[in-house]
């Protein structure tokens, strides 16, 4: 990848690492449905003017069926899943679980397009699973059946991300990144906005003050929702689909290598979350498994052998 691609990946990782901070701040107060709906709606306020400026609306309309499916896979399901998981798990742990997306991506690629999985890739998938087990065994944060359910939700969300990436590459590659981003988020908005508005804020029962109407939602929660919508969704999605166009789905998904670093950092700085040794160990195991399953580590070793 070029230095420009690497810089884009670093900024994108910082933004998506921040999304778990904002999720942790907002979801317990207003609920996962409201967070997902506000996230897509706020991002669209940023993206639709750009679509109209570049005159891409008509081209986007011709791909409506595929954009609806992509919006479900890339936005609705993972946003709801991570939003619910954020009511139980800390931001750092959520960002680590998010790093399993490339593992799912390798598995989906094998099942969908019959991409070859050699011994190193299979070992990487097994190693990634071992990292998840290590995290799930950490009683510091995963200490109940509810927390284990939240871990399962987060993993299901990353599986949905992986399917969406391959779906986009196969069926929407002719669309510009701006159209793909806006189309997916627009489809998600159609599915989420009305139910979220009718249901109102859905705070967890443990909160001392539970807002019952939108006017009672605290300002800090609105600020978290705004950051999640504009920075972590609108700007980040546009950056990601441009990166996807330049470097392909497998390399683009390696941005998840850096997200746990920022997720743990932001959670530690702003929410006083504890970073445990099992979190660090689980991160290392998952990332090593990801490198193996995507052929990065084995390829580099092979090149060194041939040039030695």
Automatic annotation (TrEMBL):
Domain EamA span(s) in chain numbering = 7-135, 150-294
Asked whether the UniProt record includes Endoplasmic reticulum among its keywords, one would answer no
Q: Name one GO cellular component term.
A: membrane
Record keywords = Membrane, Transmembrane, Transmembrane helix
Query: Could you list the residue ranges that cross the membrane?
Result: 36-54, 66-86, 92-113, 120-137, 149-166, 178-200, 220-240, 252-271, 277-297
Name the membrane topology term. Answer: Multi-pass membrane protein
Q: State its location(s).
A: Membrane
Instruction: Read off the InterPro entries from this record.
Output: AA-Vitamin_Transporters (IPR050638), EamA_dom (IPR000620), EmrE-like (IPR037185)
Q: Does the keyword Transmembrane helix apply?
A: yes
Its protein name is DMT family transporter
Q: Tell me what organism the protein belongs to.
A: Aquabacterium soli
């Amino acid at each position: 990848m070029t230095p420009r691609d690497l810089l884009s990946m670093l900024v994108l990782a910082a933004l998506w690492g921040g999304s778990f901070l904002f999720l942790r701040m907002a979801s317990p107060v207003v609920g996962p449905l409201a967070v997902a709906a506000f996230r897509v709606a706020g991002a669209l306020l940023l993206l639709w003017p750009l679509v109209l400026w570049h005159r891409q609306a008509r081209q986007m309309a011709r791909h409506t069926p595929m954009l609806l499916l992509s919006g479900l896979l890339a936005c609705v399901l993972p946003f709801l899943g991570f939003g619910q998981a954020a009511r139980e798990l800390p931001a750092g742990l959520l960002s680590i679980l998010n790093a399993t997306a490339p593992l799912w991506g390798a598995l989906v690629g094998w099942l969908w397009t019959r991409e070859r999985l050699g011994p190193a890739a299979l070992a990487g998938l097994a190693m990634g699973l071992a990292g998840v087990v290590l995290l799930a065994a950490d009683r510091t944060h995963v200490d109940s059946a509810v927390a284990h359910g939240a871990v399962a939700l987060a993993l299901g969300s990353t599986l949905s991300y992986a399917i969406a990436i391959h779906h986009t590459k196969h069926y929407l590659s002719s669309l510009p990144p701006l159209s793909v981003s806006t189309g997916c988020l627009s489809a998600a908005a159609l599915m989420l906005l009305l139910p979220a508005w009718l249901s109102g804020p859905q705070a967890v029962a443990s909160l001392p003050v539970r807002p019952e109407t939108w006017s009672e939602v605290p300002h800090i929660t609105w600020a978290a929702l705004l950051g999640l919508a504009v920075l972590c969704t609108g700007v980040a999605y546009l950056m990601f689909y441009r990166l996807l166009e330049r470097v392909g789905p497998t390399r683009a998904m390696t941005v998840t290598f850096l997200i746990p670093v920022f997720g743990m950092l932001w959670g530690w700085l702003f929410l006083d979350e504890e970073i445990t040794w099992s979190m660090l160990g689980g991160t290392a195991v998952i990332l090593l498994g990801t490198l193996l399953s995507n052929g990065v580590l084995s390829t580099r070793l092979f090149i060194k052998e041939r040039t030695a």
